[in-house]
Amino acid sequence: MIAKILPIRRSTGALLDMTDEALVAACTACDASALAALFDRFGRDVHRFLVRMRGVDDHVVDDLVQDTFLAAYDGARRFRRGSAVRTWLFAIAGNVAKGHIRGEIRRRGRAAVYLEKAPVQVLRPDLESEQRELLARMPRALLDLPHDQRTAFLLCDVEGARGVDAAKALGIRPGTLYRRLHEARHALRHAVMGGEP
């Protein structure tokens, strides 16, 4: 008979003495200190696992590690004793990385669509070369925007959503959306034009 994992209260014994499975069970009881103990035990392993994942950039690994442990905390009730906690965390990390990679592909695709929609004019060869250089800066500039500004820009200027609808979908006031959109356009213009506002 397989024992059922029951949520526990930390009345006796230190977290360091608890088994991995007991820590997961404590997470089901919303014990944040149990999550911290899991992180202390497996954080480096999960970090190393994510660094080895193809398509995960070094600058986002720490965020993905955090997302992995938050997902584990939220999904602790779904843990089954059929695997080790470490393996379970690796599976979660794999799914988190997969979601991140898909998101990056979508963002790059939207940036490419935006570039395709840019008006094309017949220019002198020297001006055409200069325009190509400016447009080549756009995808990087778009990715460098803060998340809220990038979201507003992509929703309204790339996807064509009406400002009121986009604000409603994001749960913000229209004025906030328009401010973010203005800041995004200004930052993109500044980045693409090489310092010219």
- State the CATH topology of the largest domain: Rna Polymerase Sigma Factor, Chain: A
Order of helices and strands: HHHHHHHHH
Low-confidence stretches: 1-13
**What structural category characterises the helix and strand content?**
mainly alpha
- How many whole angstroms does the radius of gyration measure? 23 Å
Number of strands: 0
CATH classification, class level of the largest domain: Mainly Alpha
Count of helical stretches: 9
Biggest beta sheet attributes: none
Question: What is the mean predicted local confidence, pLDDT?
Answer: 78
Form type: elongated
Overview of the structural elements:
- Helix 4 (85-117) packs across helix 6, helix 7 packs across helix 9 and helix 8 crosses helix 9 (174-192).
- This protein has two domains: 15-104, RNA polymerase sigma factor, region 2, helix turn helix motif (Rna Polymerase Sigma Factor, Chain: A); 122-192, Arc Repressor Mutant, subunit A.
- It is elongated, with a radius of gyration of 23 Å.
- The relative contact order is 0.08.
- Mean pLDDT is 78; it is low at 1-13.
- The protein has nine helices and no strands.
- With 197 residues, the chain is mainly α.
